[in-house]
Specification:
This protein is of the alpha+beta class and 140 residues long. It is built from four helices and four strands. It has one domain: Alpha-Beta Plaits. The chain has a four-stranded antiparallel sheet with strand order 2-3-1-4. Helix 2 packs antiparallel against helix 4. The protein is globular, with a radius of gyration of 15 Å.
Length: 140
């Protein structure tokens, strides 16, 4: 089974091309947490005692939230996942997060910020797998 934790360069390029200049972007995050956070190679962030992946993700949110808000962005929704009503039974997600960014540029500003870069390791330690789907409102 292949896991996805980071954006691939080609996908990032397509994201920028498809959404630049189109206003707000809402990112749909599907998250599967590790039972125990894996801080291998992340010693500066590693807690003194073992924590769950969900706890590591909470640390990530706490650290990056001020930077997110500084960029004019916000978490619209953060909720627990469960079984799909429509979808594959074998696919399970622990959490769903919707994050609204004012623009692609604001997303890039956040993703390149010192706070994000210094704390992204908590996200890496937390997650077993993830999906990130950028969306834009349909204006008719």
């Amino acid at each position: 089974m292949e896991n996805y934790l980071d954006a691939m360069p080609e996908a990032a390029k397509r994201f920028y091309q498809n959404f630049h200049g189109k206003g707000k972007v809402v990112m749909l995050n599907l998250l599967r947490f590790r039972p125990v956070a894996d801080y291998s190679g992340l010693d500066p962030l590693k807690p003194e005692t073992e924590i769950s992946g969900e706890e590591a993700f909470q640390r990530y949110i706490k650290c990056i939230l001020p930077e997110l808000e500084k960029a004019g962005s916000r978490i619209q929704y953060y909720g627990k996942g469960n079984d799909f009503l429509i979808g594959p039974e074998a696919e399970k997600w622990d959490a769903v997060v919707l994050v609204e960014y004012l623009s692609v540029d604001k997303f890039m500003e956040f993703a390149q910020s010192k706070a994000f870069l210094e704390n992204a390791g908590h996200r890496t330690a937390a997650l077993e797998d993830s999906r990130l789907l950028p969306t834009a409102e349909i204006n008719e």
